[in-house]
Amino acid sequence: MRVAIAGAGAVGRSIARELIQNGHQVLLIDKNSESIKPERVPDAEWLLADSCELSSLEEARLDKCDVVIAATGDDKANLVTSLLAKTEFGVPRTVARVNHPNNEWLFSEAWGVDVNVSTPRIMSALVEEAVTVGDLVRLFTFRQGNANLVEMTLPTDSPYVGKPTGLIPLPENCALVTILRDGQVYVPDPEQPVEAGDELLFVIPEDSEDELEQLLAPNEHGGA
Predict the structure, then answer these.
(1) With contact defined as beta carbons under 8 Å apart, do 171 and 208 qualify?
(2) C-alpha Rg value of the chain to the nearest Å
(3) Nearest Cα to Cα of residue 214 among 156, 146, 149, 136
(4) CA atoms of 138 and 124, how far apart (whole Å)
(5) Cα 49 from chain centre
């Protein structure tokens, strides 16, 4: 897979290293000459250019990329890069970094963003995920599917403790993705029982989140 990353700072370089280790081809783009440091990621391609300019993206051959990641520290630049990648070059997948939470609403399909990654939101979600039991914590939003990745730590008084996942009447279009228990990952086979303290990860439409929360932890939310 060929991936272009706009922004060759610490974030962009870290992403590049990870992708290269996984066998992908990576191009790092930055308009700041001080950020062009090929020795930091020697296996990547490097381009000194402005990702907000059409001519620069043509030089980068964005039409040959499978994914474009807009990872600069400037939300405006990330939006413009995503929009050009999607509308002018037909890049199948765009991922954009959100630096300021107040701008998150802009990072949508209207601006060519398939997936937005908000560091402040992720950090707060991870804090919540670590300390809450019986509450849904939203970890990630999938823009194209209008769905979220959510987590719940199953409380001891859940009516489904000890029951197989196949007997849990999940809301429509809700999928149990995995079960995390004692540092292990368990495939949610229909015969696999859930236990108190399990971290359950679901993909679910936003409008079904309350229903799932009430189903799994009714006593936590004023239910029976």
Answers:
(1) yes
(2) 21
(3) 136
(4) 10
(5) 27
Q: How confident is the model at residue 220, as a pLDDT?
A: 59
- The parts of the chain modelled with pLDDT lower than 50 are 123, 125-131, 223-224
Residue 129's pLDDT is 46
From the list 22, 21, 68, the residue with the least C-alpha distance to 47 is 68
**Number of residues that this document lists for the chain:** 224
CB 43 within 8 A of CB 27: no
Residue 108 CA to residue 122 CA, distance in Å, equals 17
Query: What are phi and psi for residue 32, nearest 5 degrees?
Result: -95, 115
Q: How far apart are CA 85 and CA 92, in angstroms?
A: 9
pLDDT tens sequence across 7-44: 999 889 989 998 999 899 999 999 999 999 999 999 99
Angle, alpha carbons 140-135-202 (nearest 5°): 45
Q: Which two tokens stand for residue 192?
A: 């696999």
**How far apart, in Å, are the Cα atoms of 217 and each of 62, 133, 161, 176, 208?**
47, 9, 10, 16, 14
d(CA 142, CA 124): 18
Say if CB 108 and CB 83 are below 8 A apart: no
Residue 119: the pLDDT is 62
